[in-house]
Amino acid sequence: MSLDTVDSRRLREVALTPEEYRVIVEKLRRPPNMVELGMLGVLWSEHCSYKTSKTLLRRLPSAGEAVLQGPGENAGAVEIGSGWAAVFKIESHNHPSAIEPYQGAATGVGGIIRDVIAMGARPIALLDSLRFGPLPGSRRHFDGVVAGIGGYGNCIGIPTVGGEVYFDECYANNPIVNAMCVGLVRVDRLMRARAEGTGNSLMLVGADTGRDGIHGASFASVELDELSSERRPAVQVGNPFLEKCLLEACMDLAQTDAVVAVQDLGAAGLTSSVAECAGRVPGAGARIDVSLVPRRERGMTPYDVMLSESQERMLVVVQRGRESEVERIFSTWDLTSAVIGDVTDDGHLTVFDQTEVVARLPIDLLTDGAPPRRLAGVAPEPAPSLRLDSLPPLLDPGESLLRLLASPNLCSRRPIFRRYDHMVGDSTVVAPGGDAALLRVKGTRLGLAMTTDCNARYCHLDPNLGAQHAVAEAARNIVATGARPLAVTDCLNLANPDRPEVYWELEETIAGLAQACRALELPIVSGNVSLYNDSAGTSAIHPTPVVGMIGVIDDYAHRLEVGLKHEGDFVLLVGSSLNDLGGSEYLKVEHGTVAGRPPPLDLTREAAVNRLILAAAKAGQLRSAHDCADGGMLVALAECCLLGGMGVRCPALRPEAPLRLDAAFFGETPGRFIVSVASRAMPELQTLARRHHVEISLLGMAGGDTVEFEGQFRLQLDQIRQAWETGLSF
Amino acid sequence: MKFGVVVFPGTWSDRDCGWVIDQVVGAQLQYLWHKDADLKGCDCVILPGGFAYGDYLRTGAIARFAPVMQEIGEFADRGGLVWGICNGFQILCEAGLLPGALIRNASLEYRCEWTHLAVERTDLAFTSQCAEREVIRVPISHGEGSYFAEPAVLSRLEQSGQVVFRYCDAGGRVVPNANPNGSLHNIAGIINKRGNVLGMMPHPERCAESELGGADGLKLFRSVAGSALRVLVS
Asked: What angle do CA A499, A502, A504 make, to 5 degrees?
């Protein structure tokens, strides 16, 4: 095929549009050859270039006092005290997981771990945010993904401490698999993947390069269709053992000053890692020779080598002359390393195959050349409105509670997290199953809280408000452990933005995230966008902006957990309930409908309630705390009992008009917590609540083995546990 | 008492064991690299949890050939204390230092959760600080921890009192419901005849501090640390 008659089939294969091709020819003043076209195709894919979202993403706040590294690096970093930095990022692996659930999820975990390692940090925790179609129909996705996450995380020895899982029809063909990794590094050892220093060597370390995963990034940038299963070769295969060795070798490497930078090879493999590394240093370029790349198989072309997405590889920029030190470290771990090129100052990525130049492209054309796509958003028809007075009154709150607790979206996640090693590392102080996980920072009193959150049903009903809720809920989950929210990483999962209503969702989502993060003073320091989560013609996912958040507690001895602790403690509702059931789990489970708008969210009020909880926790007034979210107050209260192994006795709940009984029990008004306090601490807590202008109300008293609202219902804790623990048994 | 902690590629409990030995117990710590044929004067050698060499062929099947294992075999023959935890137990079985094998959990799933263990031997260097018939709480984390042995081997183990830990309920009753992985006779840990090589699936190094949910594991580390004078290495 002649270069200047590049046909549309070839363009489709590398996922470039004719218009983009025209721009390339214009910038290069010549047609690109096939290797160059492939390299540009992957780097200009939505997955790598963010061409659809990047102008919108600039609206997100990323600055803050604690921020050491914002977006643009392998991961974000914030200072957490005692000279430590937390490094963290979340990333999607949706498309691969749809096709090959086990490997898709496993390599998603592997990829996000390498992002943290590249910052010089030791990964200490993993979290996974998952969405599937309803069970049992989506069993294959669910089982494969859960097994893949465990298979990788358990083997590499990093605890999987949190996450979430939800089920909805909209994910039946497009499961969502977002993996977050958190790491720790001394502030002064934080690394950046910048190809500094002309003449420094580029070394490729870790696995040999094979043909796996070619065009993975491009594949992740289109809708799934009936041919998608043919893309299975575009899904990589993970080797967690190899990555464990790579991790330890990189930790050893970070102790030396022979290394300038470390960069993960992820989507778009060698092409993107070299280009990104050079792209972060103005004027820098790189020369590499594909013949020096250690290979897994014979007959690979330069095109294959440049586009391979073989896993468990890293690019290391090494001080010239110190390559043998690096080689020694990797050979100690029986890992291959090879010098494949060096850093230049010509602003170009030049690819040789021995002496022959097979590609030569300006770095900025690769990393920043994709023309931003400016699309127009159009608001879709609003969701059906909800008229509360059309709902029949709540007759038996106890029966509704059992059905809600047994629903797949609310029931116990233990059948999942007991398949993940969540303890390795000897740091997990608050284990999975609560609001947020809390890990201690060894050698200090610091605790690091972490969570992921998103109620995508809210986002479906109102993407802007839904995104705000995701931030607010994540913050409440952090606060419920006694930690103060510090920073955010986000993973925006949406459908095909070429459809005006999806682009509108993207705009609204980002606007909502920005608004909530500004109001709660939370910088977004890293993130990922995954678009095209549709299946040709059939279904599109709800906008699913997953918010990963970390927070810090100065002394983890002051941490809070969900479960009630002592018989006779007062159980209180902090915050007040609105007469609202919009988008609630109650509506869906009990009335089979998704309607209304998400509950109103007052961010100033959220901040005030959070401040109260943190102040009370610090003063030692609280014995337990739990965020009220999906399922409302009664579900949260039942969880406090289930996790504490203790019942609660409450007088009848008689809400004042206009608050309906169903809204009081099951409405999902934000800004509320269930806390328990020793009776003697009550007066102080009341004073503190008044000072923060937050309403608190007594629900009942902890103790016994039943959950009871006098005259309304009374359930044995065992009966509740039975419902809650079997919700995922299909 | 000098503890040696063996590091294979793929080992991950090495740092947790090291943390407990060094920071919690305050004993001497020496990491031992799998390629080293030298135990560096350690009194007790720990084979920690993880996936040595990826456990790709069969758990422990490759690790038994590591140079350090030759030394450990000889050290055990001389009466030195060898303590296999999780993957370490699997390796000891593969290496023939303990009888039987660890096979896939009956659930066919990985399990990470707290278990109760009935301590059946307290006359050992590893358990001297436990009370008679004490029930301790220790977490497991494995996919292949179901203890299996031929009937003859099993009855020999039972007759000579080589079962050290058995999964039980909180009240100490050895019942099927308390068995997390399908181990025969609820076996969680066994000792060799001589009493110096212990293998156990649960992770005592994960419960040596109360903030991690329990501190019963510390008793085992303290037992070993306090046993220096009673060990006779011939």
From this structure: 110
* Burial class of B96 by CB neighbour count within 10 A (0 to 12, 13 to 18, 19+): exposed
Cβ contact A109:A161 at 8 Å? no
Give dist(CA A186, CA A82) in Å, integer: 9
- Based on the fold, state whether residues A250 and A202 are members of the same structural domain: yes
Mean pLDDT by 10 residues, chain B (234 residues): 96 98 97 95 97 89 92 96 98 97 97 98 97 97 98 98 98 98 98 98 98 97 82 48
Is residue A182 a part of any domain in this protein?
A: no
- Give pLDDT tens digits for A191-218: 999 999 999 999 999 999 998 877 766 6
Tell me the nearest-neighbour CA distance from B40 into chain A, angstroms: 19
B155 CB contacts (<8 Å, ≥6 apart)? none
CA B19 to chain centre: 17
**A204 and A322 inside one domain:** yes
Note whether residue A447 is domain-resident.
Answer: no
Query: B10 vs A245: CB contact, 8 Å cut-off?
Result: yes
- Indicate yes or no: CB of B206 within 8 angstroms of CB of A239: no
This prediction has a pTM of 0.96
- Contact at CB, A426 and B16, closer than 8 angstroms: yes
Q: Does B112 touch chain A (CB under 8 A)?
A: yes
* Cα distance between the two ends of chain B: 17
Beta-carbon contacts of residue A701 (< 8 Å; ≥ 6 apart)? A568, A569, A570, A571, A648, A649, A650
Distance between CA A108 and CA A126 in Å, rounded? 11
Q: Are residues A291 and A396 in the same domain?
A: no
ipTM: 0.96
Which one of B51, B111, B206 has the shortest CB-CB distance to A155? B51
Which of A516, A522, A518 lies closest to A485, judged by CA?
A: A522
Residues A338 and A406 in one domain: no
Q: Is A534 domain-assigned? A: no
**Pairwise CA distance, residues A124 & A424, whole Å:** 9
SS (H, E, C) chain B: CEEEEEECCCECCHHHHHHHHHHHHCCEEEEEECCCCCCCCCCEEEECCECHHHHCCCCCCCHHHCHHHHHHHHHHHCCCEEEEECHHHHHHHHCCCCCCEEECCCCCCCEEEEEEEEECCCCCCCCCCCCCCCEEEEEEEECCCEEECCHHHHHHHHHCCCEEEEEECCCCCCCHHHCCCCCHHHEEEEECCCCCEEEECCCHHHCCEHHHCECCHHHHHHHHHCCHHHCCCC
Segments of A93-189 assigned E as strands:
122-132, 160-167, 176-186
Q: Are residues A259 and A355 in the same domain?
A: yes
Residue recorded with tokens 């682009």:
A503
Give the 3-state secondary structure of residue A416: helix
Among residues A184, A442, A155, which one has the least CA distance to residue B12? A155
CA separation, residue B166 to residues A144, B36, B143, B178, B199 (Å)? 32, 34, 18, 9, 12
Question: Residue A587 in contact with residue A594, Cβ under 8 Å?
Answer: yes
- Give chain B's domain count: 1
Give yes or no: B93 in active site.
Answer: no
Domain of residue A728, residue span: 392-421+560-730
Which domain range does residue B125 map to?
2-230
CATH number of the domain where residue B44 is located: 3.40.50.880
A398 & A315 share domain: no
Contact B34/A at CB under 8 A: no
Question: For chain B, how many residues are written?
Answer: 234
**CB-based contact (8 Å) between B205 and chain A?**
yes
Same structural domain for residues A417 and A353?
A: no
Whether A214 and A322 map to the same domain: the answer is yes
Q: What is the pLDDT of residues A340-384, one digit of tens each?
A: 999 999 999 999 999 999 999 999 999 999 999 989 999 998 888
Provide the CATH number for the domain around residue A402. Answer: 3.90.650.10
